[in-house]
Amino acid sequence: MNRLSKYFVNGLIVIVPIAITAFVIIQIFSITEEMLGVYLPVHFPGVGIIAVLLLIILTGWLSSYWALKRALEWGERLLESIPIIKFIYTSIKQLSTAVFESQQLFKQAVLVPYPHQDAKALGFVMSEISDPLKNVLEDEHVCVYIPMSFNLTNGFNILVPKKDIIMLDVTNESTLQYLFTAGMIMPTANDAHK
Length: 194
Known about the structure:
This protein is an alpha+beta fold.
């Protein structure tokens, strides 16, 4: 019976994320197809997919303009003022920002001594250290961001001596999964995905 329950849990771990993702995508496309079928005189299979893709591109293009940026900021403040909606919206936004911008935000995964010399924390090398900071530090230091599990937008920026940093050869995506799942999914090597 133990083996059967283990297989059941493993099956849920595989099926639930796939099912939720598929359900959300199918719902978005079917709602779009239904709405367009009512308002457009021409209707053909796949019009929902084309409409959603065009909407995403148009929104991305418009969001670079000042007026729409202000409107989006106002909309975000409105969503973040509603208790349950705030939790759902901010969680999804943080996750999507971390995943879609991981190449720009997180350049290199590293291990650093934190919170004390004998412990190691997983972090990311960030921007170059500015001259005012370099001038007061004795050794060469690196700026490392250590995200908190479950909430990648919260964490600590620390300046670590370069000699104390251990560079990791792992993918950004698997490192983010490790952090987001609080260590349940371990980082995988870069060559594992080639």
